[in-house]
Amino acid sequence: MDDPSDIIRFGDGERMFVIRRARRMLRQGRVGADQFLSSEEQPDATVTAVIPARNEELTVGLVVRECLNYVDKVIVVEGGSTDRTAAIATAAGAQVIRDEGLGKGAALRLAVSHVTTPICVFVDADGSHDPIDIPMLATPIKTGAADHVTGSRLLGGSDELHGGGDEFLRLAGSAFITYLINWRYGTRLSDSQNGFRAIRTSVFRDLHLRSRHTTIEMEMITATLAAGLVISEVPTHERRRAAGYSKISLANPGIWLAYGWHLLIGLCRQRTLPAPRTHE
Fold first, then answer.
1. CA distance 62 to 113
2. Residue 109 domain flag
3. Which residues contact 219 (CB under 8 A, 6 or more apart)?
4. Which residues of 238-275 are buried (b: 16+ CB within 10 A; e: fewer)?
5. Cα dist. 19→15, 24, 26, 32, 132 in Å?
6. What pLDDT shows up at residue 2?
7. CATH assignment of the domain containing 78
8. Band of the pLDDT at 89, cuts 50, 70, 90?
9. In the chain, which ranges are continuous DSSP H helix?
10. Is residue 4 part of a domain?
């Protein structure tokens, strides 16, 4: 029997949720029973998982091990932890890079400077993202259908964005920002703020992102769209964080100012035509 401490679930009804939908797909002939019994996919050598982590010793090891089922390499950016985050991530098989704790945006930029694969996918260390969705995020990029793919909690559901005042503010703020981005760039995105996403590594570098904090997700979206590149979405389910605490405090006025400032910059970006490129 699995050790409960080594399992991250997206909800108490996960087992029944999966079984019932699998049965429906079998009835409809959309999948065969042999496909459920086939071996797991091999780790993808073209994708690197990047995990920013600070004081996430209770979950980072499991997240790294789960990611290694789908990618060959995991980079954990450890931002000034006071616990065993770095040691646990290393033991789980990740390459650990230490930064100065300047924020999530700075951590992602540092990590991508070490990525050697054509695609990178960003995964939170708290267990809210399910690495099983990594292949689904990477596929549109590998086929040339997109340059940047975001996981949508509006399409896949979230255990984090409902239930209380703080959750309401997060959901409302995310919806408002996404609406303005759609209005400005003529898109139909449903979730612009989810950190679970994949992007072509060369595109990330060419965007010259500057945000130091969690506003990096919004900046990544607006910079991609302003550059005339293609963004797509896939449904991903956000689970309630398995342990630890959120590093974003909505009681901090600086958070609101940072989001407002980066949103304004994003909406005012000059749109350009993308440079011709070859598939990597």
1. 24
2. yes
3. 105, 209, 210, 211, 262, 265, 266
4. bbebbebeeeeeeeeeebeebbeebbebbeeeeeeeee
5. 6, 9, 11, 14, 16
6. 42
7. 3.90.550.10
8. very high
9. 14-27, 33-37, 60-67, 85-92, 104-112, 134-142, 153-156, 165-185, 201-206, 216-226, 253-267
10. no
CA dist 266 and 194 (Å) reads 16
Write down the pLDDT at residue 164: 62
Q: Which token pair is 274?
A: 């993308």
pLDDT digit string, tens, across residues 176-199: 899 999 999 999 999 888 999 999
Instruction: Judge contact between 170 and 214, C-beta under 8 A.
Output: no
Q: Classify residue 199 by its DSSP letter.
A: E
SS3 148: strand
Does residue 184 belong to any structural domain of this protein? yes
CA neighbor of 211 nearest in space, from 172, 252, 263: 263
Q: How far apart are CA 191 and CA 185, in angstroms?
A: 14
Strands in 95-98's sheet, in edge-to-edge order, are 95-98, 71-78, 44-53, 119-122, 197-200, 148-152, 231-235
In the chain, the number of structural domains is 1
Q: Look up the domain containing 204 and give its range.
A: 38-267
Please name the residues in contact with 62: beta carbons below 8 A apart, sequence gap of 6 or more: 6, 8, 92, 127, 242
Q: What's the rounded Cα separation, in Å, for the pair 79 and 186?
A: 36
Dist. CA 134–CA 122, nearest whole Å? 9
Pairing of strands 95-98, 71-78: parallel
Per-residue tokens: 70 = 């789908």
Q: Residue 179 falls within a domain, yes or no?
A: yes
